[in-house]
Amino acid sequence: MSRFLRWQVASVFVVVSGVALGLTVLGAWGYWAEESPQIRAITVFMCVVFAGCVGLSVSIGTVDWDDGFPWRRVVTLLTFLVLGFGVGWARLVLA
Which UniProt keywords apply (predicted)? Predict the structure, then answer.
């Protein structure tokens, strides 16, 4: 897999997980004083999950894949994104 193709694939994931991380951090910053400790803990967990997604996305682009498409990392990344969005939904239900 060429370097350009790796970064094309990774850039989509970097943008999606970066936007999710940015919005989560922005929401935490804006509503931190008004939220309960449980909601704060869930928000911190979401920030950690989305930060891990950004790191995993960058690793898709930087690691040289000789054996083809990095399916395991992509599936792991998608699983973490679904986990993060699911935790966000649970936070809305809790609030």
Answer: Membrane, Transmembrane, Transmembrane helix
